[in-house]
Amino acid sequence: MKKVFFMIMLVCFAFLNAIDSVYSANGFVENPVRDSLVYYHNNTDDSYWYGTDSWAVRFGFNDFFENIDTLYYETEGAYIYIPNEIADDELTVKIYADNYGQPELETLQTSQTISPVYGWNHIVFSETYTDTTIWLVIDYPTNISDRFISASNIDGTHSYFLQDEYYLNMADYGFVSEFLFSLEGRFLFDGTDLELKDLTLVIDENYYPDGTLNFDAYPQFTIRNNSQQTVENAILYLTIDYPLWSIEDSIAIPSINAEQEIFFDHYQDEEHKYDLLREYSQYYVSAVVEHEADSLTFNNEKNFYLNIFPLELDNVLIENAVLNNETTYNIWNDQESIIFPDSTEVINFFPDISDIPLYNSAAVLRSNFYDLTGYPVTIIEGEDKIFGYFESTYADNFSSLYNDFLENGKTFISEIDVHASVDSAGNVQFNYELKNEDTYIFFDYLADLKFYAAIVEDNVGDNLEIRQEVFGSVLLDLVYETSNLSLSWSDTFADSFSFNKFSDIDIIGDSLNYCRIVYWVQNTETHRIDYLNSFPFTEFVQVGISDNDIVIFNEKISIYPTPFNNYEIL
After folding, report:
1. What is the per-residue pLDDT across 127-156, written as a single tens digit (0 to 9) for each?
2. Which strand (E) or helix (H) includes residue 99?
3. Which residue range(s) make up the domain with 513?
């Protein structure tokens, strides 16, 4: 049915002599060079467009700052994202002025032709061009098979395609897509603009004479003066919020010359040393640089969470949202050559119904949780994703992300107890108890945590039309989830759930002995994994069908007037 619908769409668009698109699974493709760029896309490669030879984005720079009547932009180059790489290919980038909503084609301001590569292509113009509105035009012959223009699935009011010698607006034709085209340059205006480019806290871990652990923090940051004049008397206001209280500081900024960028290092500076808790904690760091004449304030602020947690992660969770095809086999081969099996949990889920018996509703739920709309996608510890598979880059990207979590991943959750029993009818009772190892956590963060339990199957592949064996396990079902985890400072959370291993699970192979319960704690907003473990079916304790030896933890309610007072347990 999908193929029939796709062919109908092709016929319709061919008849209309218009453009069309196909789905992209590449997802987030943010350019690392951001500070000097302007664009209307959102750095996601959501769709591939084809059907014409010229594409454009109209940049109206007053769109970016409503409080400035006339804003000029000096363009120095461009970044164009191309989702394919073909030998001897050519792409031409052109800059035009605006002529009543169309590019002024009679006057070409600058042009550059390149051989595009997969990903972001950086084009440096031989001469700059300055205006309040600029057309970025890309001449690139596209087709349905191997030449495309990438776009983010948002808005569409700034992107255009050439049709019968006229550039038509994407949104006017119902296309919600902004092309992955960015201009590089700088805004020109008479006012003052200070930019806080980066901010970090350097943590010194040390001990007091009595042996008490202590954390000191020192700020490091970079400020750029984007103005045409020297700026004096600016101030950086810094706030560090604890779950208990806050630290506030103000740092005087010395004179910064026009277009100068300065790195400020206050490491070991006693005047700006912040004594953090003598215990592990979560912090929220925010900073803003202020000057009374600064007229562009969008780039003045930085903020982030700082987690100082006590425990190393025992396992790294790798989730592969994949299809049953050769691309997936290549992903498995690359992963198998990189990971450490004893400290890694690899779960594969197949969200496409054509992949039965690997497909199931749990795979769809997991795909929806991550807002995935195409495959393959590799998800490392819930937070980092690799969209698609490109042989030349995948292994290096995966290795970098994986090893970073393996070496630096920390958590505040430990496991006190876990056990499972099963009776002759297949009824499984699973009991677990988790503990916060004396770490202060924000309540809004705890409110976003969920406990998940899934059934996975190992050693899948011998009886399927795939390679001999799936690398890792295959997701079969999500059997339990719960929120409202009482894991404040020094708290414990005990819970249990049950399922029937015969009626509630459809295995792929022929033995339940290859199944395990994988359970984890995950933040539903950030998708960060804070705890992970597994329990094999072969270790269930066998009990009688009417046996009362199955242990069920008593439910408990924690009542306290403030987040960190002593509890009353009912």
Report:
1. 999 999 999 999 999 998 888 999 999 999
2. strand 91-99
3. 312-569
